[in-house]
Amino acid sequence: MKKIPRQPMPKQPPEERIKNFNEVALGYTEELAVKEAERCLQCPRPFCVDGCPVKVKIPEFIKLVKERKFSEAAKKIKEDNVLPAICGRVCPQEEQCEKKCVLGIKGEPVAIGRLERFVADWEAEHGEIEKPEMPEKKGIKVAVVGSGPAGLTCAGDLAKMGYDVTIFEALHKPGGVLIYGIPEFRLPKHIVEREVDYLRLLGVEIKVDVVVGKSITLYELFDMGYKAIFLGLGAGLPKFLGIPGENLLGIYSANEFLTRTNLMKAYLFPEYDTPIKVGKRVAVIGGGNVAMDAVRSALRHGAEEAHIIYRRSRAEMPARLEEIENAEEEGVIFNFLVNPKRFIGDENGWVKGIELVKMELGEPDESGRRRPVPIPGSEFIFEVDTVVIAIGQTANPVLLDVTPEIKRNRWGYIEADYETGKTSMKGVFAGGDIVTGEATVIEAMGFGRRAAKAIDEYLRTEKW
Amino acid sequence: MFKILERETLAEHINKFVVEAPLIAKKALPGQFVILRLHEKGERIPITICEADPEKGTITLVVQEVGKTTYELGTYQAGDEIADIIGPLGKPAEIEKVGTVVAIGGGVGTAIVYPEAKAFKEKGNYVISIIGFRSKRFVILEEEMRKVSDELYVTTDDGSYGMKGFVSDKLKELIEEGRKIDLVIAIGPAIMMKVVSDLTRPYGIKTIVSLNSIMVDGTGMCGACRVEVGGKTRFACVDGPEFDGHQVDFDLLIKRLAMYKEEERIALERYLKERGKA
Lengths: 464, 278
Known about the structure:
Chain A is built from 18 helices and 16 strands. Chain A is an alpha/beta fold.
């Protein structure tokens, strides 16, 4: 058999795409998808499935793609994953399923993520989204707080088991980080809406504009007849650097910068009411996926120069390689081994510079990455008009402060069992970033799935 | 969607809306606010709750027309719907019996200080209220304030009604007369709260202010509303909106409030132009 190379993904050319917010990756055609599917060895013991947090039956769906049974392939994926169009786009497959692919040992692994995305999009485009067979309704109410990846997955799984599920969302649109955080050019919002609509098709009720902890408490939810509650709150409190000048005008948290851009559509101002200030020279501080999203958004907002400021080197960046490469192609300038010491403002209080200190890599720290150490006397001023701080988030205390029964760890995250999501409060489960700290979409989904199973067991046995 | 049940123009550019929002009405306490968004293309803005009626399931919002969104809201009539209202957000005011409380409302801030004056009165405090406006035609809630105050003073910048001058001038008078004041609550424009705080500081009179920062989500997620209080960064949405006025960096607040001045002008001009055509 002649060897087929891994099929590349068609993309918008960099010089075009930095002028719009449309999706960068264009997706496989049927031909490309079938060709890529033919590369799969159909291993009898598929290691790829081990690498998937929600255990999608990967070889089975790929075989259906090869046979051009795209609709069946979609159904096969949805047995395990209610959000395939999202996962196909934002999962770090290179760390998960594709990392375990046997073809990857000597060559390039099967492009599982791209195939998953193709199948989900094909199903949507051909208007064949069908409601799966549903069991009889149990007449038992479960509340899910938060409509991000953890909450959506948990809600979908419970609905498929026959529970009456209500999701409570604080923002005006469901989707959590998928809506406010991840940009349109990486995950179009109509795709998130489509996947959320699928949950509605499964019978999940979604109530937006409800801040659980403020509008309503967990105690009241139990009083209203909800028998179990899943908390998929997300992290939700931006970290700042804690250095002088951080509140100068023109300095954003990544959460604010991305929320204005994605949820509020500030790039369409003044057609949309929400403004955003993006100057000519933008610096994004951080090296993760959120930093990449912010810096690439800055370019699309019209920045002439968009910089990444990162205290370690390229090798230690936590962002996905694909996102780093996309940013490089688009002309993002990477400044490695530098760390901000203070921000400098002009007479009107706007940021105009950052004092950076050069760093060198020392001994590995607890994360296994080499610890950056400042080089004394190496400080210099870096001129900027706009700064975005993308150094992570911590736990938002709004709900937890009014629910003292729920134990938190020393970082403020919920103490929940990894396998079941059980918290210290009876009937309350938790998962996703509010338990693990910042992680990936698919890890949050995996947590939501395990919690759904545990909630079902708890409601059947009443054993805590 | 949140239905407007009543709408009333209280004064030039100041409108009152009674809105159906049962969950919020049940929980709202003095000092708390909501975030509202008019429609699909709207921005999210914070508005402090003036009154809440848990039985009827309604909240009352008093809104001054200052920017595009508030001008547009001004055209909404009873029966119209607001797309999103989220709340009650922020920490409630601390209402205790302290003795004599001076409740100061500047302009539309009167609508925010009103429920607090009422609550302090109900707790058994002696309430002296000072409400100030630019001119007679902007005076709001005078009768309501009178009902919940032991003494009420109205000031206008131009002297067209009540005492000529600022609320701070009246407060200064009271202090200089030697009136015993245990607590000042000052709610209004940032500059007014700054002047009042500067006035009471040397006398050591505890002064609480309510900060009207720019917000997006209103639940601590974005940090747009950050302010400096006692040298520390705090989020007005979750740590406030009320803070010790003697600790607040008002100059920073005033600068941050002006961050989108240019965009606000563009949006308002564009809106009024379109409205003119219609």
